[in-house]
Specification:
It contains 2 helices and 7 strands. The protein is of the alpha+beta class. Strands 1-2-3-4-5-6-7 form a 7-stranded antiparallel β-sheet, covered by helices on one side.
């Protein structure tokens, strides 16, 4: 998939949950020559929780970080694929919570947004 198309799809996914957002800040950078792209952003939700995210696409693959925090900016959970925690079966994909580090499937922003939407829908 083309990087620009992938980032456009991410922006569309965010627009689908616009009713949950009170603020959003998104930055996209692409380099067609190197075939790389970077998208990062912070989404503020109606319950004042935050999602700080970044996705980097390059010929080497995709790197991601999706950090979800409460209104005091304390970690609720973070999915990433940083190459540490090699002891996990899902390496490099893993989930950080206040209770520890756990196995996780590879995550995409749409998966994270769906989980957040489900969490917020329970309280509103």
């Amino acid at each position: 998939m083309n990087i620009v198309t992938y980032f456009y799809q991410i922006k569309q996914q965010i627009e689908k949950i616009n009713w949950l957002l009170i603020q959003k800040s998104i930055s996209i950078h692409t380099d067609d020559i190197a075939n790389t792209g970077f998208i990062e952003g912070i989404l503020s939700f109606i319950d004042y929780s935050l999602l700080d995210f970044s996705v980097i696409i390059s010929p080497k693959g995709v790197k991601y970080r999706f950090q979800y925090m409460n209104k005091e900016k304390f970690l609720i959970c973070r999915w990433d694929n940083a190459p540490h925690h090699g002891e996990l079966k899902t390496f490099p994909h893993h989930l950080h919570t206040p209770n520890g580090i756990f196995e996780s499937k590879s995550m995409e922003l749409k998966d994270v947004l769906q989980k957040i939407e489900e969490l917020i829908a329970k309280t509103f």
